[in-house]
Amino acid sequence: MPARVPRPLALVLLAPLVVGCWGSSTDISVSRDTTRVSREVVDRTLATFRAVCAPLFAAHAADVAAVGAVVSDETATEPRRRGWGVHVDLTVTLRGSPRTFSGPVDTNEPARFLMGGGERPGLVAFTPTAAALCDRSAPPGRDQVFVPIPELTALLPRLRQQPTDAQRAWWADEMERAMAGDYQSQRNIAWCRFDGCDGVEPIDDAAACVWRLVIAAARDPRSDASDRENVEFYCRKALTPPDLADARTRAAALFRRIYGRDLPK
């Protein structure tokens, strides 16, 4: 296994990769937290970002205070959901109130993007502000924008998960308890269908919603407002109307199987 490059050294090594005018607010400050990709790959990936989100570096450059990128293979939720191994997490800090674009703009937090390869290569703009910087807008009812970028498949390695026997046994035990009505196990199953956890079962947003609907309807004594909020986030915001209708039908069948009665209206 290659030796891990300490972060301070990685910053020095990658400094020549920054593309743009020296001293410009749209220079990309890079931190490399993995050695699984070369400096050339990082350079090409950032060049791709500049091309796909060209307005950020041109029409909207006056509103940009700083751009940062972290190249990592950490298996956090967002890259794991997309099957991304090595990925690039970009943040853009704005200068006060934007003057070059309008809409639902949030200047309190940096605009965030994520890039990855694998079977679903592309760029995610996580907020309407991030999308606006690329002159894009989210679909109705959604906050995020996904831009397919096929060439990233050849640049950024996909995520490879190999569940252990212990992880498979944990999942089987949790599923058994969830089907017996255990509140915490149901929440664990719902989360893993969204997050992917250890890769024992594939990510399935509709299945995650089904479990969230069952949990909220069961009204366990330990249930709180977060379970109702989860229905809003994992169902109404995550699924299309037809998929949500199908999830409700599946939830009714699952609820009846677990509790022996109809799903409350």
Topology:
Layout (H helix, E strand, L loop, with lengths): L6 H8 L13 E5 L6 H14 L1 H4 L6 E9 L4 H5 L5 E8 L16 E6 L5 E4 L2 H6 L11 E4 L16 H15 L3 H13 L9 H14 L6 H12 L4 H19 L6
Describe the structure in your own words.
- The structure is a single chain.
- With 265 residues, the chain is an alpha+beta fold.
- It folds into two domains: 7-154, no CATH class; 165-259, no CATH class.
- Helices cover 42% and strands 14% of the residues.
- The chain has a six-stranded mixed sheet with strand order 1-2-3-4-5-6.
- Helix 7 packs antiparallel against helix 8, helix 8 (205-218) packs antiparallel against helix 9 and helix 8 (205-218) packs across helix 10.
- The longest helix is centred in the last third of the chain and has 19 residues, at 241-259.
- The chain is globular and about 65 Å long.
Order of SSEs, N→C? Answer: HEHHEHEEEHEHHHHH
Rg: 21 Å
Number of strands: 6
Low-confidence stretches: 1-22
The helix tally amounts to: 10
What would a concise description of this structure say?
By secondary structure, the protein is α+β, with helices and mostly antiparallel strands.
Features:
2 domains; 265 residues; 10 helices; disordered N terminus; globular; six-stranded mixed beta sheet; 6 strands; 14% strand; alpha+beta
